[in-house]
Design goal:
The chain has 11 helices and 85 strands. Strands 56, 57, 59, 60, 63, 64, 65, 67 and 68 form a 9-stranded mixed beta sheet that branches. A 6-stranded mixed beta sheet has the order 45-44-48-51-52-55, sandwiched between helices. Strand 75 and strand 76 form a beta hairpin. It is mainly beta.
């Protein structure tokens, strides 16, 4: 039976008017939990819905979220808080106490998700009661909301995007600049660019471009849609021919910005975080809008202000180092061995009467207890700049701290030297320069070939200023570049002093230039026409790097067959239309927003976004071997690992007031995933997994299993030492209660023996169980605990080496990790363990995973939200990964911790949920009733049932196979207290299998029998019957728990004979002592009249394989036994060995029947490495023969194509017969090569002895051969 859980948000059911009441209860935990961030442990207040604010020392807060329709909250009124006192003894060492206030302060905010309004009420439910001098906590609340209709309701908000890009038609050519300037495009430049210059009309030449600056982060801020035309000057265009001496002048902008701080009235700069290049587009096609030319500006107004000086701004900033490999900030010069730098600023024609203003910013890393500082000096003035020290022994503390300081002085010359010295307190201390900013005044005198100037002093209402430019003998033109897209040429009289008049009610900027034009323009070639703006609405948007277009199209086709509309585009295509060609992640978001804004009904909204390509914290390719295929959004913090993050959520913040990433108010609007591929091979691996995921060969009962893995803590009380296991168990219990058709597999560290090794503590059996969960299959593998980029836990489980050895090829799980940094995909110098599980051929289908440091309790809340939604059905359909992830994120939007979770994988993929249900109808011939049956040891049980649809109707046309598994009752497990001082953790586990069968389903019905093993637990308790059915097209699952297991049957047949066992390696052609490669498969055929024991409850009654008599390293094979179809008496054991040593091996297999009778068999085999072909046991049979024989041989190339040649010679060496054959052998023994005893001419050979030569060539072209004798009788 499947349960449909309708849970998205906590929603009030009332019809909203102007007032609405929200109320709730807060369930507090009696104990105070210890929250773990891999390197930090703190005690916390804890309640069921607690989220934590790290800026308040992890004080918890409660959020109540409601759907508001078309309304929004304008104010709130607390009606009632009910309190209870907090016991004083539980307050010791609890984080956040110093931030507890005397009264509860309730905050609210409004948010939008997929054009639906939501309101959130949030408060810290703890206060200090001054009257009682006691801390109190809220146990219930009532809050009244005042609502009004939202002015900017998303259903009516629509951003107008053009219907067609200018790039959709005509011939277009792309060029680039890297600085501000007036640039010349000559005849030869255009010709080299690829333009047929002689065929164009210069009067039709147009240049488009938006200036190359970073796009604004907030969606509501203006940005140009598509490319806009720039005014240009074309010399010699009037004759309609572009002659050899004709040229184009245009104003090109630097990608970096210089802005005005209106508070200080000083300029500052902002480097483009994503690109150091500005792109422009040239066309001469007679389509689109009319060509735009620079016009002349004439002012007849009389000036009321004379300008002879202007504001100059210069800066020094080199972005070479990201201190923590995270965040947007990069730093330049290193103060370590060298502790002093001298920076020279050339300020021509400096106005010495006005002080020069320098702003310095630097960062330093020096341990607590030292005095760390810079000294910044120039022209006899110096400043000491102190920098806070850091705890260098604590990974989670600030890595470095930064300081900023101003220095003002009167410069003695136009060459200004600024000296920066780091006062290094320790040899380990190190510092970095961020930037130097220099504001000054210059005399308005021409210098160089281009002079840019502006004057803040001229700005004022009604101001008209006369600018007097001296030294202007060589000046050809002056342009007003205040609006860089609509440049105006000033009407001037040439001479040594040029004067012009301009209105200056706002800041105006100008450039004066000579005829020695700047030609530093870089050609980028012809552009293919494109028109992303004309795309229709799509469910699924794939942004794929050019290298991975083929793989992206495969995913698109896969989902088109699945009913989704899909579009595939490259980042460069998006940049061309949405950021003027410059790399900018906000351009990608703007592209997605175009679809979002154009949607008029919810079904038109884009649903999923896939970023196909790896990302890097270095968005500008400063790092050798960078992996910047699809850009990343990094947080601003680059000085401390706490709060510094990378997130793909940013691409899904699509509502008007979103985009500046305010904490707790921005909900993701699409399901987003990333495939972090760096190569064709990695991309192919991921795509092949996706395409293979639901193929018929993958339909097995692993789809019923969910594996929960819980790390062990570091000691303390129950909550502290066992929090990871407890949280993992809570998640498993949630699934057991809400979706019992799935079988939790619990791997809790402290339930296994810990071993001490030279490398530290290890849990080898835990690691084996985790690897087995992968290789045997789980729908989901969920890990809670410590972790890092190279694996899980301090005890090093699931390491990179383990991941590279995984062998699952048809059963890929979704991995959910509530741990730190497991999938830090944006470090180009390291492929994280999480990434490897995805991009390898084996491993994971997808990961809902962590990319930075995270905290335990918020992890659990997000993890819990995931399981509350992962099995939710809508119209009998489960949700896709992206939607589940989006809902999970939005339910936890108030906590910044959730931004460190990323979906790596295909967001449009749906997990391999079985489609239909399975019902049990009869137990031992009796129809199921409210009276529970009891199953006893050695009793023969017969069960009947059918496969049904969503409405409970039998699927009478369903024919296939069902795999029933009968579990013994749950057992209570007490962990081993491996950590000194810890208390044991107690949990229940129902994983002992009494029977696992393989049964036919005919017209929807099935029936099977089995004998209950003697090795059940004899106490009475509820068992579980789990079903998985498939017909190679559709599958089903179900469960039945209304029966008891316990005791012994009153009557049963006697049996003292053990099972019959046939043991082989790889296939039945194997013979004792045969050869294999280093990865052979144990193959055993077993049968017993009463069935095979696979329970494992009885000591020594497991199916066990022992290699080379190493009994301490035995292999328990209970889970590798599969019954034959419709038989509980016969079955097969298949177990893959890995990386066996070369040489001879002995294999012992012991199998028990359900009566605890055993049989032990032994074989031997010889391992030969499979790189080069090796032959063994070459013979022909019969030998001697008359008219027929077969040639056989053993080899080490199982499951590979071989070419075999047999040449027969007389004893004198004459070749009489050649036989050739291509062979494909599933095992290590060849198929036969037959011969009728005739020679190459069809004549019979005389009786006697002959020599034959067998030569075999493998796929890798290695060759092996061998000579043997045969005898012909006549």
């Amino acid at each position: 039976m499947k349960k449909i859980i309708l849970l998205l948000f906590v929603v009030s059911n009332s019809v909203f008017s102007q007032k609405n009441m929200v109320s709730g209860k807060i369930k507090w935990y009696d104990n105070i939990v210890k929250d773990v961030l891999d390197f930090k442990t703190v005690k916390l207040f804890a309640f069921e819905t607690a989220q934590y604010k790290d800026e308040l020392d992890f004080l918890p807060f409660h959020s109540h979220q409601i759907q508001l329709g078309n309304q929004e909250i304008t104010s709130i009124n607390v009606i009632n808080f009910e309190y209870e006192q907090i016991d004083d003894t539980s307050l010791k060492d609890v984080s956040g106490l110093r931030f507890v206030e005397n009264e509860i302060n309730v905050d609210f905010y409004n948010a939008i998700s997929r054009k639906v309004n939501y309101g959130v009420v949030s408060f810290v439910p703890i206060r200090f009661n001054k009257n009682l001098s006691k801390f109190e906590r809220v146990v219930s609340y009532q809050i009244e909301l005042t609502l009004k209709t939202a002015i900017a309701n998303q259903k009516s908000t629509f951003k107008s995007f053009t219907n067609n890009s200018v790039l959709s038609s005509g011939d277009w050519y792309k060029i680039a600049v890297i600085k501000d300037g007036v640039f010349k495009l000559s005849y030869s430049f255009l010709k080299d660019l690829g333009i047929d210059v002689n065929a164009i009309n210069p009067q039709m030449i147009k240049i488009y471009g938006n200036g190359g600056k970073m796009l604004p982060e907030k969606n509501s801020e203006f940005r140009n849609d598509d490319l806009i035309q720039n005014a240009i000057y074309v010399y010699g265009e009037n004759d309609g021919v572009f002659n050899a001496d004709d040229y184009i002048l245009f104003y090109g902008q630097s990608p970096h910005s210089i802005k005005l701080n209106t508070t200080t009235n000083k300029f500052y700069h902002e480097l483009n975080k994503y690109s150091d290049t500005t792109f422009y587009y040239i066309t001469a096609s007679a389509t689109g809008e009319s060509p735009k030319r620079i016009t002349t500006s004439v002012t007849t107004l009389s000036p009321n202000n004379i300008v002879s000086t202007f504001n100059d701004y210069q800066y020094h900033e080199i972005d070479n180092y990201n201190l923590i490999k995270s965040g947007q900030e990069w730093f330049g010069e290193v103060f370590d061995v060298k502790t002093e730098y001298d920076f020279i600023f050339n300020i021509p024609n400096l106005d010495n009467s006005i002080p020069v203003d320098v702003v310095f910013r630097g960062a330093a890393r020096s341990k607590h207890g030292t005095i760390s500082s810079f000294t910044v000096s120039s022209n006899g003035v110096s400043k000491n700049v102190s920098v806070s020290t850091v705890d260098i022994d604590n990974y989670t503390s600030q890595y470095a701290n930064a300081s900023i300081e101003n220095l003002s002085f009167v410069a003695s010359s136009s060459i200004v030297s600024v000296k920066v010295n780091y006062n290094k307190p320790l040899s380990s201390s190190v510092a970095w320069l961020d930037y130097l900013q220099v504001n000054s005044r210059r005399n308005l005198k021409m210098h160089g070939n281009q002079l840019f100037f502006r004057d803040l002093n001229t700005v004022g209402t009604g101001n008209v200023s006369q600018f007097n430019l001296t030294g202007a003998n060589n000046v050809e033109k002056i342009w007003d570049i205040s609006n860089p897209f609509n440049i105006r040429e000033l009407q001037i009289n040439l001479g040594s002093t040029i004067s012009f008049v301009a209105t200056t009610d706002t800041l105006r900027q100008f450039v004066a230039f000579t005829s020695n034009y700047d030609t530093q323009v870089f050609p980028r070639g012809k552009l293919n026409n494109q028109n992303l703006h004309a795309l229709g609405q799509n469910d699924y948007i794939i942004v794929a790097h050019q290298n991975f277009l083929n793989q992206a199209e495969q995913i698109a086709d896969f989902h088109r067959q699945d009913g989704l509309s899909v579009v595939v585009v490259t980042p460069n295509q998006i940049y061309n239309e949405f950021s003027s060609g410059s790399q900018d992640p906000i351009a990608i978001r703007s592209f997605i927003k175009m679809f979002y804004d154009r949607a008029t009904i919810s079904s038109e909204l884009p649903k999923y976004l896939l970023l196909f390509g790896d990302g890097s914290y270095d968005n500008k390719n400063r790092i050798l071997g960078n992996t910047n295929y699809i850009p990343t959004y990094q947080s601003t913090n680059s000085l401390g690992v706490i709060g510094s993050l990378v997130t793909d959520d940013y691409f899904g913040l699509l509502d008007p007031n979103e985009g500046n990433w305010s904490f707790g108010v921005e909900y993701v609007d699409v399901g987003i995933g990333r495939i972090p591929a760096k190569s064709q091979e990695e991309a192919d691996n991921v795509v092949n997994k996706i395409l293979n995921y639901k193929q018929p060969q993958t339909m097995k009962d692993w789809r019923n299993q969910i594996t929960f893995i819980g790390d062990v803590g570091g000691g303390g009380d129950t909550w502290e030492g066992n929090i990871h296991m407890k949280q993992s168990n809570d998640l498993a219990t949630l699934v057991e209660n809400s979706n019992p058709e799935y079988n939790p597999n619990k791997i809790f560290f402290d339930a296994y023996k810990k071993e001490l090794t030279p490398g530290g503590s290890r849990f080898p059996d835990v690691n084996k169980e985790i690897i087995r969960a992968f290789n045997e299959g789980s729908l989901i593998i969920n890990y809670t605990g410590h972790g890092g980029e190279t694996g899980w836990a301090h005890e090093r489980v699931l390491t990179v080496a383990d991941i590279n050895k995984l062998s699952n090829t048809d059963n890929f799980p979704l991995i959910v990790t509530a741990t730190c940094e497991f999938s830090r995909f944006d470090d180009p110098k390291r492929t994280s363990a999480g990434e490897l599980t995805l991009i390898n051929k084996t491993g994971a289908l997808a990961l809902l995973t962590t990319v930075r440091l995270v905290y335990s309790t918020p992890n659990f809340l997000l993890n819990k939200s995931f399981y509350e939604n992962v099995f939710v059905e809508d119209n009998n359909e489960k949700k896709r990964l992206g939607e589940i992830f989006m809902i999970t994120k939005n339910l936890n939007a108030s906590n910044a911790n959730n931004r460190n979770f990323t979906l790596l994988g295909d967001p449009a993929l749906k997990l391999a949920y079985p489609k239909y249900d399975v019902a049990t109808t009869k137990f031992n011939g009796t129809t199921i009733s409210t009276v529970l049956d009891t199953v006893k040891a050695l009793q023969k049980v017969t069960i009947e049932g059918f496969v049904k649809d969503y409405n409970g109707n039998k699927l009478s046309n369903y024919n296939g196979i069902i795999y029933p598994t009968v579990f013994d009752k749950a057992k209570t497990i007490t962990t081993l207290q491996n950590h000194g001082g810890s208390v044991p953790f107690v949990f229940n586990s129902q994983n002992s299998k009494l029977f696992k069968g393989k049964v036919s389903v005919t017209n929807g019905d099935f029936s099977f029998s089995f004998v209950v093993p003697k090795d059940i637990a004899y106490n009475f308790g509820k068992g579980k019957l789990s079903y998985y059915a498939e017909n190679q097209v559709e599958d089903a699952n179900g469960y039945f728990t209304d029966f008891y297991i316990g005791g012994t049957s009153d009557s049963y047949a006697e049996d003292s004979e053990g099972p019959e066992v046939e043991l082989f390696m790889n296939d039945k052609s194997f013979v004792f002592g045969g050869i294999t490669d280093e990865n052979p498969t144990l193959l055993a055929y077993v049968q017993d009249i009463h069935g095979i024991n696979m329970v494992g409850n009885g000591i020594g009654h497991d199916i066990v394989a022992v290699l080379d008599d190493e009994t301490d390293k035995s292999f328990v094979l209970n889970n590798y036994y599969e019954a034959d179809l419709n038989s509980y008496q016969k079955g097969t054991i298949r177990f893959p060995f890995k990386d066996l040593k070369e040489g001879r091996h002995k294999l012992t297999l012991k199998v028990w029947d359900v009566y605890n009778n055993s049989r032990e068999v032994v074989t031997e085999f010889n391992v030969v490495k499979s790189k080069d072909v090796v032959l063994s046991r070459v013979y022909n049979y019969p030998n001697p023969f008359t008219t027929y024989t077969e040639f056989w041989f053993e080899h080490n190339q199982a499951n590979k194509q071989l070419y075999a040649q047999v040449q027969v010679f007389t004893v004198t060496g004459k070749l009489v017969k050649t036989i050739e054959k291509n062979i494909y052998s599933e095992g290590f023994r060849s198929t036969s090569i037959t011969w009728d005893g005739l020679d190459d001419f069809g004549d019979r050979l005389a009786r006697g002895v002959y020599i034959y030569h067998l030569k075999v060539r493998a796929e890798n072209l290695s060759i092996a051969d061998k000579y043997e004798k045969l005898v012909i009788l006549r």
